């Protein structure tokens, strides 16, 4: 079997994987392909956003996500913010230290439980996210421009369905 280049098209990569695992029993290729494509799309979108939108501001995907979540939902305890960002509290601690040192967020003790920390956007953080989000959304639009509006709605609905299933099944 020949080597498949890293920059080969998705169909070639799927075929290479199928060739490699084809001798294994009870492999659901349709499920494997669907999940692998979700993973590859997520990684490709993340890399594109960090390169084309976030890099100029020195933000990572996670730091942008933290700013966005705080912008949409307001002040939040670190444990909830970590959950919304899809990272551990330990990872979030480093992200918040960077954002705080740049003046984008502040961390303060919880009003009634000193063990908890609440994170808030600063005016500078709010200005940054309001400036970056339209650029971010323009890239989102470019990512899915190959799909019709109906296909975009179907994709969003199907991904929500899978997400709901994964989150509810632990």
From TrEMBL:
SMART domains: HTH_MARR (SM00347). The keyword Hydrolase does not apply. GO terms for biological process: response to stress. Keywords: DNA-binding, Transcription, Transcription regulation. InterPro entries: HTH_MarR-typ, MarR/SlyA-like, Tscrpt_reg_MarR-type_CS, WH-like_DNA-bd_sf, WH_DNA-bd_sf. Residues 31-164 form the HTH marR-type domain. GO terms for molecular function: DNA binding; DNA-binding transcription factor activity. This is Unannotated protein. It comes from freshwater metagenome.
């Amino acid at each position: 079997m020949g080597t498949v280049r890293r920059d080969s098209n998705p169909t070639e990569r799927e075929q290479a994987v199928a060739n490699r695992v084809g001798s294994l029993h009870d492999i659901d290729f349709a499920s494997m392909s669907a999940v692998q494509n979700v993973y590859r799309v997520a990684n490709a979108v993340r890399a594109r956003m960090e390169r084309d939108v976030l890099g100029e501001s020195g933000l990572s995907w996670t730091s942008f996500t933290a700013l966005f979540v705080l912008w949409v939902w307001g002040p939040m305890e670190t444990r909830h913010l970590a959950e919304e960002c899809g990272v551990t509290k330990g990872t979030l601690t480093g992200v918040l230290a960077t954002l705080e040192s740049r003046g984008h967020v502040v961390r303060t003790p919880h009003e009634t439980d000193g063990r908890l920390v609440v994170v808030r956007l600063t005016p500078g953080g709010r200005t940054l996210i309001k400036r970056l989000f339209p650029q971010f959304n323009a890239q989102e639009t470019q990512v899915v421009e190959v799909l019709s509006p109906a296909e975009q709605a179907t994709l969003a609905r199907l991904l929500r369905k899978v997400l709901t299933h994964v989150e509810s099944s632990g």
